[in-house]
Amino acid sequence: AATAGVRIDPGVQQNVGIRTAIVEVGQLTDALRVTATLTWDLRRESVVSARVDAIITALHVKAPFESVRRGQPLATILAPAWSSAVAEAQALEEAGSAAAKSLHTAAMQRLQLLGLSDVRLNRDGSVTLLAPSDGVVREVLVREGQAATAGMPLFRVNGTSTVWLEAAIPQASVGGIGPGTKVEATVSAMPGRRFAGEVEALLPQIEPTSRTQWARIVLDNPDGRLVPGMFAELTLQSLGDAQVPLIPADALIATGSDSRVIVLRADGGFEPVRVRVGHSGGGRIEILEGLQGGEHIVTSGQFL
Prior knowledge:
It contains three helices and 23 strands. The chain is mainly β. The mean pLDDT is 82.
């Protein structure tokens, strides 16, 4: 009656199965499993457009989703605004004098200023547009014989060496996830194969209906087998924010208004301690207030 808590005979403790565990200090880790959808990595997207008014005389890539290499011809165009500059550069290229060579360098710089850096000049005055990078032609927006105005997009090329995964993370689990969080993905089309990646960003928006937040994850795709539109299953290693006391989930007694644990004192007595809990995962719970770490707490038989 003089002190808080209670003493229990050791024989009784053994009979009722009272077990204790030491409170550890660490970061809470939990494997969160969600589904996601593969999309194009928009940082590897390039748009090939008509920089001046032109006419499409030939298409070298006519169907979408054809694979291309950097520098591969996409289309040949006739552009009156470029004709004189192209003819001047070609004439200077054929000249053999040192003065002509220096002027040819200036003419090529002029072509770059006119937007002819990623093209090939042809002898007939036409210009061949080249693929800006390795990847897939997602869209072909013109046809042969079509007139294209300045600024009109002609092709959309996407690299495939990396892809994005867009995953909806439940609001309650967002706290331990951020840029750099390790991710492991599996796709049903390739059973047994695992793809490693990491969270690039948590998008600053919560879906009001599902109370989830979108995470953007970058996955390496060196062989190009991951295709946008596929569904994937993700395992994210959620990590706590700081070093805090961690207790087994079985040790917590929730009373409705607060939470308590039973602490074994140095003198052998048992005492209830009010605690404030944080996140939970992997069978453990964060303790934000009430415990310091190193205490012995009851994990079985506390109700008895």
